[in-house]
Design goal:
By secondary structure, the protein is α/β, with parallel strands linked by helices. The chain is 44% helix and 15% strand.
Length: 372
């Protein structure tokens, strides 16, 4: 029997005003959809509406709510690098819970343009911490007692593993890319605001997320769309880099548990028990497409080795024992189940993929080849 889906309404309790940063992104959008469909909370969605931001999935959920969800979702089009705008947005939201997911997250883009990652992930997190700290100090009674800032981060801050072992909450930080270095800096800032100013924070570090509605520049959507179009499928290096794959809805389960029941000042590692090499993932996608479109099989013939990414970490893997034992979290989807569902979703939503790529002026080309 698979684990039950955590009930958002029960977890939130009296927390009714939720501020989600990056709520128009891939993981943030999944969080917003869950809050809207599984609770009565009012969601303030702070997002700069950058190239990977999209509200299509949220609008679909709102359309199915009574009165089309009027008053339930408030988009705050704000760049976290603008301190005054962030302060105003926090005041407007008056939140009982802040879930901080806004971040530049594509490693290849961080190689060719690291500056925006520092501005968004480091300076942006600092601006949010200052605004939320002022908000927290204005609260009183049960609202202050129940308040949390949940900072969502990545396992990439821990660097690269060898053939053995897994990342845990006690693993030393050892970031290797501009992206992971910027996220490591933001993690340290959040912990510092907890220890220095008493801000009640919870941190989570997750493995590679995948699932529907992900901007098609990451491995799984890129491979799926290129294979479906009978284009060469790029495979970095020898393809033996290992990642721990986490289905996005399982991650949302973990985020809600950590945000609402996690111990302030504590961090939780979230992994999907889904280790696989990039080569294995690509081959599984091709096998799924062979079943969906036998006329074009075998899709694996399209796999084309390309030059490896600079500083490409060899292996990530997470030990999620703490969040499992303390908060009762378990992933509900195996990699095989989640990957099959994801491939089918992208095949059925190629129009959406074309629209968001066109809006972002991204045609599926490789990024991050030349550091500048």
């Amino acid at each position: 029997m698979s684990p039950a889906t955590p009930n958002a309404s029960s977890l939130l309790g009296h927390r009714q005003r939720i501020l989600v940063t990056g709520g128009a992104g891939f993981i943030g959008g999944a969080v917003v959809r869950r809050l809207l469909s599984d609770s009565d909370a009012i969601v303030f969605n702070l997002d700069k509406m950058g190239y990977a931001s999209d509200l299509t999935s949220i609008e679909a959920v709102l359309s199915e709510l009574p009165n089309e969800g009027v008053g339930r979702h408030h988009l705050q089009r704000v760049d976290l690098s603008d301190a005054a705008a962030v302060e105003a947005a926090v005041r407007e939201a008056d939140p009982d819970l802040v879930m901080h997911l806004a971040a530049e997250s594509h490693v290849d883009r961080s190689i060719s343009g690291p500056g925006v990652f520092i501005e968004s992930n480091v300076t942006g997190t600092y601006n949010l911490l200052q605004a939320v700290r002022a908000h927290y100090e204005r609260l009183s009674g049960s609202r202050q007692e129940d308040f949390r800032l949940h900072h969502i981060s990545t396992d990439e801050v821990f660097g690269s593993l060898g053939a053995e072992g897994r990342f845990s909450e006690t693993t030393p930080y050892d970031p290797r890319s501009p992206y992971s270095a910027s996220k490591a800096a933001s993690d340290h800032l959040v912990q510092a605001w907890h220890h220095t100013y008493g801000l009640p924070v919870v941190l989570t570090n997750c493995s590679n997320n995948y699932g529907p509605w992900q901007f098609p520049e990451k491995l799984i959507p890129v491979v799926t769309l290129k294979a479906a179009a009978r284009e060469p499928i790029p495979l970095y290096g020898d393809g033996l880099n290992v990642r721990d794959w986490l289905y996005v809805e399982d991650h949302v389960d973990a985020l809600l548990l950590a945000a609402c029941q996690g111990e302030p000042g504590r961090s939780y590692c979230v992994g999907g028990h889904g280790e696989a090499t990039n080569k294995q993932v690509v081959n599984r996608i091709c096998a799924e497409l062979d079943q969906l479109n036998a006329n074009n099989a075998p899709h694996a013939d399209l796999i084309t080795p390309v030059t490896d990414r600079p500083g490409h970490d060899r292996r990530y893997a997470i030990d999620p024992s703490r969040i499992s034992s303390e908060l009762g979290w378990q992933p509900r989807h195996s990699v095989e189940e989640g990957l099959a569902a994801t491939v089918r979703w992208y095949i059925d939503h190629q129009d959406w993929c074309q629209q968001v790529r066109a809006r972002a002026s991204y045609s599926g080309e490789r990024l991050g080849l030349t550091p500048q």
